[in-house]
Amino acid sequence: MERQVPHFREELEALQGRLLEMGGLAEERVRAAVQGLVSREAALFEKVLLGDEPINQLHIEIDNRCFRLLALHQPMATDLRAIVAAVKINTDLERVGDLAVNIAEAGKRYISHPPVKKLIDIPQMGEIAQAMLRDALDAFVKRDTALAHQVLNEDDRLDSLKTQVFRDLLTHMLNDQSTVEPALDLILVSRHLERIGDHATNVAEDVIFMVSALDVRHHGPAPVED
Amino acid sequence: MSTASRPLASLGALASAARRDTTDPNAPCKIEVDNLNFFYGAKRALEDISIKIQPHVVTAFIGPSGCGKSTFLRTLNRMNDIIPGTRVEGRVLIDGQDIYAPGVDVVSLRRRVGMVFQKSNPFPKSVFENIAYGLRINGMAGNKSELAGRVEESLKQAALWDEVKDRLHESALAMSGGQQQRLCIARALAVRPDILLMDEPASALDPIATQRIEELVYDLKKTYTIVIVTHNMQQAARVSDRTAFFWLGRLVEYDRTEKIFTAPAEKLTEDYVTGRFG
Q1: B207 CB within 8 Å of a chain A CB
Q2: Which of B52, B162, B189, B249 has the smallest C-beta neighbourhood within 10 Å, fewest atoms?
Q3: For B199-250, what is each residue's pLDDT tens digit?
């Protein structure tokens, strides 16, 4: 029998809804920032920069909801893990929003120069990072640990692509000094996308902890200590 | 933008974002108490209590044993009048009328301000008669079908109807403790009060029965103004919109429940809610 009263359940569901909304906004910002870079559209970057405020507002609101639920309902077991996970996921999603802003800022600088090269790996990184984020949030909603584990596995692809981008751009910079500035911005973008993957990974780890009480961070699966 | 640049670090700021408080600041007070003092003989049990309670709000009174919270609750429908040697100073206004003014009909007052006690106290009668009795003595029974309708309505409001509808004429004393307490709530609701006072209504119940009472309180506030005394701080946190902390007969702090449990203004309150005393 559940200990908590039904209106607590309603508040938990509302919390989950707001987290998903925030995840959707963050994912959209990443998509727009990468698209702006590929299509060299300054308007998309402005959209990303303006779009950070709603994410920031949600960040505060979600923290307040978690704080209130912890203080007033003293949740236990799954409920406790769900709220602690929500606090951490909230921070990760806000950071994703910030990284989208960083990509947009680097993108604005980048398109003020001639293109260094045709962008192939960076859009691919963008797609992987967005998919990881989407899957991590799906796993959160569906309490799906298998999907969360898939997200963890995807992170290696992003890391490899980031290394590849760096090597590729290093070659361009060594061959043509005029490309140093825009190439550095592209390296920064790849770094930001790789970090977005890390945040999606954090979300997936939190989902696994929330559902199964297993802490898979750092050293792989291990039962939570009593 | 990182969190460090925001006022998030302040717990007070977090608490101020409450959405749970249903208080309408412009609504007239349902209960207004001015400088209330209460004496058991020469002993002053309540000191200069002033408080305003809005309609359709659940207010919890918390504090250590002997702090005066139950005594104060009982001043709100003059239940202390039946204790010899007690005396009240100050005013208690309900809908603007002083309930201690000369000529106040106490029976009528207690119909408007119902009460549920710590220990359920059903009459040794059937479930039906437990509800019908109050309606009859208050001249609210009407004809047979009207009476049956009011009994059903009250039992439904107390979330008990489905459990007892097939045994309305069996003894109320055969019910479980939690059911008896909800019957007492139904009995209080039958005479259509405005205010429901609850004195530790779940302290004698198991966790499941307690949960049902708590959820009932949450639902009933749409219709009633509820004041609940509880020694269980977690219960106060779960069910109430506003909380008043009493200590040694004084009202130390009265604020939104969220504020009391996350960022109380007074150190005494902080010490009590964090379990440092009491």
Answers
A1: yes
A2: B162
A3: 999 988 888 888 888 989 988 999 999 999 998 999 999 999 999 999 999 9
A14 vs B254: CA distance, rounded Å: 28
- Determine contact: A67 vs chain B, CB below 8 A: yes
What b/e sequence results for B181-217 when a residue is b if at least 16 CB atoms lie within 10 Å of its CB, and e otherwise? bbbbbbbbbbbbbbbbbbbbbbebbeeebbbbbbbbb
Contact B237 A73 (CB under 8 A): yes
Residues of A with Cβ-Cβ distance to B260 under 8 angstroms: none
- Mutation site, B8, B10, B14, B242, interface A, largest A CB count within 10 A: B14
Quote the minimal CA–CA distance from B27 to chain A in Å.
Answer: 25
At residue A218, the pLDDT reads 85
Q: Between vectors from CA B115 to CA B65 and to CA B259, what angle results, nearest 5°?
A: 55
Which residue among A1, A5, A68 places its CB closest to the CB of B258? A68
The count of residues in chain A is 226
Domain chopping of chain A, boundaries: 6-212
User: Rounded mean pLDDT of B186-197?
Assistant: 94
Cβ atoms within 10 Å of B6's Cβ, excluding its own: 14
Report which of B24, B12, B3, B11 is spatially closest to residue B221, judged by C-alpha positions: B24
CATH code for A6-212? 1.20.58.220
- B207: closest CA of chain A, how far (Å): 8
Residue in chain B closest to A72 (alpha carbons) equals B237
Tell whether domain B25-273 is in CATH 3.40.50.2300. Answer: no
Mean pLDDT by 10 residues, chain A (226 residues): 62 94 95 96 95 94 95 90 96 97 97 95 97 96 95 94 96 95 97 98 96 85 53
DSSP codes joined into one string, B58-91? EEEEE-STTSSHHHHHHHTTTGGGGSTTEEEEEE
Per-residue pLDDT averaged across B187-204, rounded? 93
CA torsion A33-A38-A44-A45 (nearest 10°) is 50
Are A71 and B258 a contacting pair at CB < 8 A? yes
Write the ipTM.
Answer: 0.72
